[in-house]
From TrEMBL:
<dbReference type="InterPro" id="IPR027417">
    <property type="entry name" value="P-loop_NTPase"/>
</dbReference>
<dbReference type="GO" id="GO:0006281">
    <property type="term" value="P:DNA repair"/>
</dbReference>
<dbReference type="GO" id="GO:0005524">
    <property type="term" value="F:ATP binding"/>
</dbReference>
<keyword id="KW-0547">Nucleotide-binding</keyword>
<dbReference type="GO" id="GO:0009432">
    <property type="term" value="P:SOS response"/>
</dbReference>
<dbReference type="Pfam" id="PF02463">
    <property type="entry name" value="SMC_N"/>
</dbReference>
<comment type="function">
    <text>May be involved in recombinational repair of damaged DNA.</text>
</comment>
<feature type="domain" description="RecF/RecN/SMC N-terminal">
    <location>
        <begin position="2"/>
        <end position="517"/>
    </location>
</feature>
<keyword id="KW-0227">DNA damage</keyword>
<dbReference type="InterPro" id="IPR004604">
    <property type="entry name" value="DNA_recomb/repair_RecN"/>
</dbReference>
<protein>
    <recommendedName>
        <fullName>DNA repair protein RecN</fullName>
    </recommendedName>
</protein>
<keyword id="KW-0175">Coiled coil</keyword>
<feature type="coiled-coil region">
    <location>
        <begin position="162"/>
        <end position="189"/>
    </location>
</feature>
<dbReference type="GO" id="GO:0043590">
    <property type="term" value="C:bacterial nucleoid"/>
</dbReference>
<feature type="coiled-coil region">
    <location>
        <begin position="328"/>
        <end position="355"/>
    </location>
</feature>
<comment type="similarity">
    <text>Belongs to the RecN family.</text>
</comment>
<dbReference type="InterPro" id="IPR003395">
    <property type="entry name" value="RecF/RecN/SMC_N"/>
</dbReference>
Length: 569
């Protein structure tokens, strides 16, 4: 049950704190003039349940909007298990918080821990059921009827198992099509791949070979300058420096023999002499290693040209070229046993196709059974909504599941099975029922959605139901019937109803007024609970406008007083 709702800086709401802890079951009505901001309540819940956020919903001159709701979940093992699975445990409450910044960024928290919008949406499906005008439009879309039927029949688990098999079948069918396409152009593909592999193998590149060749080529280009520099350095060491250092070393060794105090200096001169001799030798070796063979330079240029051609065709680096060659070789090997792969895949596909058709057939059988139940249940619900002579039927058209192992039978299936489900309706005696989208009016659609939601609410585990103007397009006797139906649902659910009908508001266990006010040139939407006398005034306004007559006030009072004890009757 929704216990508390707090909203800060959302659209025209500055600050809002609503406490529903005393209304864990019953009807909670929200009324107010058109444009007062009643839709903001639904928008707040929409954001909490993972709906798309927009910076435009943040109140002007504010950095962020914060929406928070606290739900009581004691005893709800399904919700507790989901929270535990994601490390969001809380035995008594579930707190959803959505923060939307003025820059469009958004974060969702569940029990004070950051969560994804997807998880919030999954959780919300077990917490609250919203019946908006958008949901009413879904009734006009035939493709959504199968979802309503499966929800009523509690067939979603069975449908999900079917969908998993269907996904496997689709994946295998896609693989088979790809292999069959390869089979058609196999020889041409084999020739092309063989040519590519031959071209790479004939060049036989090595990893990083091009980098080494570039270094060697650059060395060739600098060989003349290097030979001149190193040659002169070596000549000067050999002709001048080395002989002088050898002579100095010998003299210092002689001096050290005469005066031991010169021993360290003699060692330094010896070290210097030996280091210079080593340097001379190293320079000589390097000088001898400088390439001078112009034929080698031509070889390098030719080899680099071959490697560059491979890189232009098969990869930016030689490593990528070699990896490409590996892939080509593997594909060539797979082409050699393509017939075997296709045969094995067809066998596997037929096996899964048989299972798929069996599951689709079982699902279809259950849908026919549930369709009869839903037809009977909706007929009863509509009768209590002033549709005494209306007809409602659930039409199920099944696919052909006879050839269970044939791929053609499986190919005719979809992600929902092989059935087409259509809701048929006739409001007039003697007229055959037709698809809803062809015959239903706005007021009739509202009552049909209410009937459907009441049936589904009795089946699912959701404790809180929100109706957003479910009363659109109805009045008179139909309005009274809708009010009684919502009141009936509120006897075992927590029902929030945004309404324009005084008949519905009169049944409320708690009545909130949504108003728009202007203060210091700023517009605010406020929501406050009404006292008993204030409820009379609000119902009178809903009945007769801003200046209701005494007779209207008297009727409004009778509505409130006449339904105060409705739970006791």
């Amino acid at each position: 049950m929704l216990q508390e709702l707090r909203v800060n800086n959302l659209a025209l709401i500055n600050r809002l704190d609503l406490d529903f802890s005393e209304n864990t079951a019953g009807l909670i009505a929200f009324t107010g003039e058109t444009g007062a901001g009643k839709s903001i309540i639904l928008q707040a819940v929409h954001l909490l349940t993972g709906g798309r956020a927009s910076a435009s919903w943040v109140r002007n001159d504010c950095d962020q909007a914060v929406i928070e709701a606290q739900f009581g979940i004691s005893g709800r093992e399904d919700i507790l298990s989901l929270l535990h699975e994601h490390g969001l445990d809380n035995e008594e409450d579930c707190i959803l918080r959505r923060i939307v910044s003025s820059k469009g960024r958004s974060r969702i928290f569940i029990n004070d821990r950051l969560a994804t919008a997807k998880l919030a949406h999954t959780l919300a499906e077990s917490l609250v059921n919203i019946a908006s005008q958008h949901d009413q439009q879904l009734l006009l879309k035939t493709h959504s009827h199968i979802d309503f039927l499966d929800s009523y029949g509690e067939l979603w688990e069975q449908r999900e198992l079917y969908r998993q098999v269907y996904s496997r079948w689709q994946k295998l069918a896609r693989q088979l099509r790809e292999l069959q396409e390869q089979e058609q152009g196999k020889e041409q593909r084999r020739d092309f791949l063989s040519f590519q592999l031959k071209e790479i193998r004939e060049v036989a590149p090595l990893p990083e070979e091009d980098e080494q060749l570039v270094k060697e080529r650059d060395l060739f280009k600098s060989s003349t300058t290097l030979a001149e520099l190193i040659g002169k350095s070596h000549f000067q060491l050999q002709d001048k420096v080395t002989p002088l250092l050898i002579e100095i070393r010998k003299k210092m060794e002689h001096a050290a023999a005469l005066d031991p105090a010169l021993k360290e200096l003699a060692q330094q001169s010896s070290s210097a002499s030996f280091e210079v001799e080593d340097l001379e030798g190293n320079l000589r070796n390097y000088l001898n290693s400088i390439p001078t063979d112009k034929g080698r330079l031509e070889q390098i240029s030719s080899r680099l040209a071959q490697l560059r051609q491979l890189q232009r065709k098969y990869g930016t680096t030689l490593e990528e070229v070699l990896a490409f060659a590996d892939r080509v070789e593997k594909e060539l090997n797979s082409l050699d046993n393509l017939d075997e792969q296709i045969a094995a895949l067809i066998k596997e596909l037929n096996g899964i196709g048989e299972e798929l058709c069996q599951r689709a057939g079982a699902l279809s059988h259950d849908r026919f059974r549930v369709a009869e139940q839903l037809t009977t249940a909706m007929q009863a619900e509509l009768s209590s909504l002033s549709f005494r002579q209306a007809l409602f039927q659930v039409s199920v058209t099944a696919g052909d599941f006879g050839a269970a192992s044939s791929s053609s039978a499986a190919s005719a299936l979809s992600a929902t099975g092989g059935d087409a489900v259509t809701f048929l309706f006739s409001a007039n005696p003697g007229e055959p029922p037709k698809p809803l989208s062809e015959v239903v009016s706005g007021g009739e659609l509202s009552r049909l959605m209410l009937a459907m939601k009441c049936l589904l609410a009795r089946r699912d585990k959701v404790d809180t139901v929100i109706f957003d103007e479910i009363d659109a397009g109805i009045g008179g006797e139909a309005a009274e019937a809708v009010a009684r139906k919502i009141d009936e649902l509120a006897s075992h659910h927590q029902v929030f109803c945004i309404t324009h009908l005084p008949q519905i508001a009169a049944y409320a266990d708690a009545h909130f007024l949504v108003e728009k006010q202007v203060d210091a040139n700023r517009t605010f939407t406020t929501i406050r609970a009404l006292s008993r006398e204030e409820r009379v005034q609000e119902l009178a306004r809903m009945l007769g406008g801003d200046n209701p007559s005494e007779q209207t006030l008297l009727f409004a009072r009778e509505l409130v007083e006449g339904r105060t004890d409705k739970r006791k009757r």
